[in-house]
Structure formats: C-alpha cells, structure tokens
Amino acid sequence: MTNVPDRRRFLSICTAGLMTVIGTLIVVPVVAFVTSPLRRRKGTAAAGDDFSDAGAVNLIPVGTWTLLPIEIVRQDGWDKTRQSRSIWARVDGNSPDDVNVLSPICPHLGCPITWLAAKSDFFCPCHGSIFNKTGSFISGPSPRGMDTLEFQIRDGHLWVRWQDFRTGLKEKVAVEL
Questions:
Q1: Mind listing the pLDDT tens digit for each residue in 85-130?
Q2: Does pTM surpass 0.85?
C-alpha cells in the first residue's frame, strides 16, 4: 500500500499540469484579443499607414484646382470607421514638387471653401474669406491661409494624410483624434 500515495500524488501532478495547459490554451488567445488594439498604431489606414488614396495623379487636370474625394479609415480599438472627406489638389508638372494639396475647410469656422475659377481665388461662402490660388489669405475674417496637407506620390497615385486643424487660430494647430 505504499504505492497508493505515490500514485495519487503522481495523478494529482498530472491533472494539475493538464489543467494548466488547458487554462493556458484558453487564456492566451483571450489576452491577445483584448490587448491587440494596444499594439496597433492609432489612426491606421487600409494601406498600412494613415495616408488615403486620392487617385491617379495623371487624372488630375494640369494647372487646375480639383476637388477630390478621399476615404479615411481610422481604427479605434476594434472599431474601424470609414469617413469621406475631400481635398483640393493641383498638379503643375511631373515631379512631386509640382503637386499641391489643400484642406477644403475654412480656418475661420470650418465652412467648405470653393474654388472660383473666373477669379482664380478660393472663397468661403459662410463669412466671405478669400484666399489666393496658392491658398494664402487675402481678405475676410479667416485668421490664416488655407491649411496644406501632407501627401506622397506612390506608383502614380496621390496619397494624402488627412488632418483636422483647429479653427479660429492664427497658427496651424493639428487636432489629435
């Protein structure tokens, strides 16, 4: 009968080991699922960064401001949201230095800015701010010129990093989401 306690102890150790393995197999995926948003960068887009595709550069008319739609994909935890925005883009040549991208949001109060081709100016219809063809402030209540947006040219496509800016301030201050 001296083997009975040894057998019980051995079976107890085996059972505890098996339960530890089963528990680990259950807990590890749950912990990975819960903490996975912490390992991802905030504000990532579908392309693996926070730039959005605005389309082929060769489809933008040369020398003309064109309002282009973009789709922003933002990830907050497990929630992935898609937002539609627009940008003003102008291409003046073949190099990336010949591309200009502006936010269509007025720095005064956030109204949409329109391009007046006949006057070669941007105009905010809400309060009458006027910006020249490069987006610099001309007149009106706006505290600064139009906000430029960061962009890249990749494989012939214009990729734009959308950014919201605080309105009503003289300096360009990005809004962190």
A1: 999 999 887 666 788 999 999 999 989 999 998 898 999 999 989 9
A2: no
What token pair was written down for 132?
């020249």
123 with 114: CB under 8 angstroms? yes
Q: Quick one: which of 134, 105, 8 has its CA closest to 113?
A: 105
DSSP secondary structure code for residue 15 in this structure: H
Which amino acid, residue 10?
F
Other beta carbons less than 10 A from residue 106's beta carbon: 24
The domain limits of the chain are: 1-39, 52-161
DSSP string for residues in 63-113? TS-EEEEEEEEEEETTEEEEEEEEEEEEE-SSSGGGEEEE-SB-TTT-PBP
Is the domain covering 52-161 a CATH 3.30.70.1350 domain?
no
